[in-house]
Amino acid sequence: MGLEDHPTVKWFREKESKGPGATASEMLEAKALKTLAMSAGAHDMGLVSIDNPDLAGEAQEILELFPRTKALISFVCRLNRENIRSVSRAVADLEFLQGFEKVNRVARKLVSQLSEKGIFAVNHSVGFPMNLAAWPGKIWSVSHKTVAVAAGLGHLGHNRLVIHPRFGNFVLLGTVLIDQAVTVYDQPLDYNPCIKCGLCVSVCPVGAIASDGRFNFANCMTHNYRDRLGGFSDWVESIVKSKSVSDYRKRITDSETVSMWQSLSYGICNKSSYCMAVCPAGKDHIEPYLTNRKEYSSQVVKPLQRTAETVYVLSGSDAEAHVSKKFPHKKIKRVGTGLRPASAAGFLDSLDLIFQRERSEGLEATYHFTFTGDEQCTGTVIIRNRTLEVTTGHVGTANIAVTADTRTWLDFLAKEKNLFWALLQRKIRVKGSPVLMKKFAGCFPL
């Protein structure tokens, strides 16, 4: 049978001979798209062009994922507030897990509906699965928060969550990429729904959210994501390091073991989502906070602050000091991040995520790094006034200069190579005060 004789090809030729039907562009009126998204189960949505300047830093990865992309549909699905505010992690995590499933269902349904109308579309997962081949770098192709802000669905609050003007931060975000332009695009909100109440600062177990807006990613991830990503890697390494069953039980409690089992079996769980739980922003949630703040604190904030729980921290980190000072009734457990840079450039990029600014108190120094061997690059790290600046190339006058074979340096960070032997073999060379190097290490615990 020749190609032209195949039933499917004959069907297409007959359809083609009748001329074009309704064009896809007829379905891309903004109002029609919004109606479609809402019918699929979204609670609100916005439209953004791939050419929007606010997406300039994201466009390349989006187009690599779906080269046809002309526009993006950003949408939100509400979460049940009181479930998130529960002191029971089981209740809160179930709400998240079912919320994730709903967002993915909505996105998939929307893609199916668009496909039926001749519009090519792709939806990205609300969370996982992600491209873990890129770990520990950027493992997502679509930054839902960036798209949602550009689409007018809210702004980032002090807690680093998108706050919707009505639903507050009790939302999950989804994004659908489409291959057609849209008649009208949405614009960012002209105000931020965040009211700067500071409750997220007061309730964070590890102090990852600072009152001045600084956010410590590593401290947040180490605790909240203990049962996934780097926490899982660290747990596996604890198994490998254990000499016996009894040794493993000294490292990991039975409840921690079954907690990891639960995340693997039923869905990833959080250790804390308190910054979301206490947020009063949004028209649906503001009334109790404004009418009686004392009662709001008693009913919403203090129960989470009083919760007896294990808080996972990096040894010597700002988080460890924060728990000891603010929440002495909570149990501290020192763990690793599971983060190991895969490249010298990745090491430099990761410093801002790990930086412990309280540990840098009194340190003012410029560090020059030169990496040789398999990967060659240079970088400058400046620590001053509890702030960090990382740039490519050598900038300014160094107080200390580090020249390292890239592979040896990465193995040292992974604790697979001994620094003394690396120095002895001149695989790593340090010019400057050893004290400054020690202080540098204290600012970036792994």
**Alpha-carbon Rg, integer:** 25 Å
What does the average pLDDT come to?
A: 94
Number of domains: 3
- How many separate helices? 19
CA-CA gap between termini: 64 Å
Question: Which runs of at least 5 residues are low in confidence (pLDDT < 50)?
Answer: none
Q: Within the largest sheet, what's the order of strands? A: 11-10-9-12-13
Q: In percent, how much strand structure appears in the residues?
A: 15-25%
- Which class of secondary structure composition applies to the elements? alpha+beta
**So what's the CATH class of the largest domain?**
Alpha Beta
**CATH fold name of the largest domain:** NADH Oxidase
The CATH level-2 architecture of the largest domain is identified as: 3-Layer(aba) Sandwich
Q: Largest beta sheet, briefly?
A: 5 strands, mixed
* Number of separate strands: 13
**Roughly how much helix do the residues carry, as a percent range?**
40-55%
**Multimerization status:** single chain
Judging from the principal axes of the Cα atoms, what is the shape?
A: globular
